[in-house]
UniProtKB/TrEMBL annotation:
Gene3D superfamilies to which the protein is assigned, alphabetical: alpha/beta hydrolase
Keyword Oxidoreductase attributed: yes
The organism of origin for this protein: Mycobacterium cookii
AB hydrolase-1 domain mapped to chain residues: 33-263
Upper classification of the organism: Bacteria, Bacillati, Actinomycetota, Actinomycetes, Mycobacteriales
Protein name per its UniProtKB record: Peroxidase
InterPro entries per the UniProt record, alphabetical: AB_hydrolase, AB_hydrolase_1, AB_hydrolase_fold
Keyword Oxidoreductase: yes
Keyword terms: Oxidoreductase, Peroxidase
């Protein structure tokens, strides 16, 4: 395994039951690995390199494209439970017996499902910009995503500038910096998500938003819940709700920050996440 930066980490593949999964790994070779689970429409190149490199300075980090996403093969599933099963198969395929999970947005929903399906696999969880099953406003993610993406495309912006950041002067400046960091990798870039996979993910998130709330009191693992104070995609109230309902949770809310609060406050987040994962 390479200790290089995320910008230069080669993309690898592994065959899991006849499906090719694309992934990148970096950091130290020892200790419990940290698996990064990504957001709606995201591929490997959508992880903020400052966050990946920051965590990988002390940990073995693995980021991957789930089934049907980016460079991974197969058809993207349309439920969070199926995405979790695929993630578990990928983790097991790499030979890991226990992992920490860093789930952002959709990835945070998948992380909650992983710990429900295979509790012994997970040591600690970081849930960023996400919400519980049946959470407030999650059924409106499709509408917000399409509306903000359309506005962004009409004004020549990356949709994430509207979706992940506040509309204050500070938020807009941080959005530009984030989008520029995502362009630092110039070679071996991932394939964009297909329209069909994007639709499957939207369907899965909508179903997650309208399903019956899960019993979070059964999750004994330590959980770090983190978000910005003005998340328009997955309303911040969900973060407060989860922090109350998990028996062993700590909560961090960043000021003047949105859905992508962990990217806006990447230095602070990396320090807090690294301490939590120790």
């Amino acid at each position: 395994m390479s200790t290089t930066t995320y910008r230069d980490t080669p993309t690898k593949t592994i065959d899991i039951g006849g499906t090719t999964f694309a992934y990148r790994e970096l950091g130290t070779a020892t200790g419990v690995p940290v698996i990064f689970l990504n957001h709606l429409a995201a591929v490997l190149d959508n992880w903020d390199p400052r966050v990946v490199d920051g965590i990988a300075a002390h940990r073995h980090v693995v980021a991957f494209d789930n089934r049907g996403v980016g460079a991974s093969g197969g058809k993207a599933p349309d439920t969070i439970a199926a995405m979790a099963r695929d993630a578990i198969a990928f983790i097991s395929g790499l030979g890991f017996e226990q992992v920490d999970l860093l789930g952002f947005s959709l990835g945070g929903m998948v992380s909650q499902e992983i710990v429900k399906q295979q509790p012994q696999l997970v040591r600690k969880l970081i849930l960023a910009g996400t919400g519980p099953a049946g959470g407030v406003g999650i059924d409106k993610v499709t509408r917000v995503t399409i509306s903000d993406s359309t506005k962004a495309l009409l004004t020549g912006k990356d949709p994430k500038e509207n979706l992940f950041f506040t509309k204050t002067a500070n938020g807009k400046a941080e959005a530009k910096r984030f989008v520029n960091r995502l362009k630092e990798r110039s070679t071996d870039r991932d394939k964009s998500i297909s329209i069909s996979a994007f639709r499957m993910q939207l369907k899965a998130i909508h179903a997650w938003g309208v399903q019956q709330p899960a019993d979070l009191s059964t999750v004994r693992q330590p959980v770090f819940v983190v978000n910005g104070d003005d998340d328009r995609m997955v309303p911040t109230s969900n973060s407060h709700d989860m922090a109350r309902r998990f028996p062993n949770a700590q909560l961090k809310i960043y000021p003047d920050a949105g859905h992508g609060g962990i990217f806006q406050f990447h230095d602070e987040f990396v320090a807090q996440a690294s301490e939590f994962l120790q």
